[in-house]
Amino acid sequence: MHTVNPCPALAAIVRSFTIVETISERTSTLLPETGVLLGIRYSGSAALLRSSSPQEDLPDWSITGIRDSSRRICTSAGGGLIVVNLHETGASRLFAAPVLELYNVTASLRDWLPNPSFEGLQANLSHAHDNRSRIARIEDFLAAQKNTRPPDTMVEAAIRAMRAGRGNIAIARLAQHIGVSQDRFEKRFRREVGTSPKQYCSLLRLRFALNLYQPGRTLTDIAHAAGYYDQSHFIREFRAVTGEPPLKFLRRSQYW
């Protein structure tokens, strides 16, 4: 698995391209991201594993919205996938449908694209024989999809403030600083990002805490450094997302 930066023309929409290839069958945990993901599979297959229901085969071309919990994915041997990790407002600048409809949803990318666009992308990728050319064709496609609606500068300013604070920021105070009511701010944020400001901040804080983890570092230290009230608060939020306490998850899970 390795990551490729987007071309300059897409840098405001795409955070990165991640190439995932498997030699043997592998099960991984996918933690929630802070933006929408596009998954474009060029070989193999994958299925979503659930503890209380049968596994669900995933579409080869998928779109996944922001989630409040992790997913366990089983990828077949010989699998190849390009994950397009969009910036927080990237999906709203590419797709006509409201991005909030994707919250906690993984759908076929075909359902979110006009048929001519989807078929054109399929045709172009069928002629690509390596990941560099696949990414180049995906970039051409995404550049052609960009809508003309300007980004919501208020929401993007709020995202920068939230990221700078690593998710530890009072939403009411942020709205006041921006100069709008909290209700109006939250509606605009959900429309552009696909989740609430509070949920977005929770994901930022969790992601930051995970980056702090290393063997021997205590949960109390991680919790305080990441801005949680205490260790119990950290464990409670971590379990809500992953279904497991932090140390059990981190010591045994293959995740990204």
Describe the structure.
The protein is α+β, with helices and mostly antiparallel strands and 256 residues long. It has helices spanning 115-126, 131-145, 153-164, 171-178, 182-193, 197-212, 219-226, 231-242, 246-252, and strands at residues 2-4, 14-21, 26-30, 37-43, 46-49, 56-57, 61-64, 71-75, 80-86, 106-108. It folds into 2 domains: 2-145, Sandwich (Jelly Rolls), CATH 2.60.120; 153-252, Orthogonal Bundle (Arc Repressor Mutant, subunit A), CATH 1.10.10. 40% of the residues lie in helices and 19% in strands. A 6-stranded antiparallel β-sheet has the order 1-2-9-4-7-10, with no helix packed on it. β5 (46-49) and β6 (56-57) form a beta hairpin. α7 packs across α8 (231-242). The chain is globular and about 55 Å long.
Topology:
Elements lengths: L1 E3 L9 E8 L4 E5 L6 E7 L2 E4 L6 E2 L3 E4 L6 E5 L4 E7 L19 E3 L6 H12 L4 H15 L7 H12 L6 H8 L3 H12 L3 H16 L6 H8 L4 H12 L3 H7 L4
Antiparallel strand pairs: 1-2, 2-9, 3-8, 4-7, 4-9, 5-6, 5-8, 7-10
Helix pairs in contact: 1-2, 6-7, 7-8
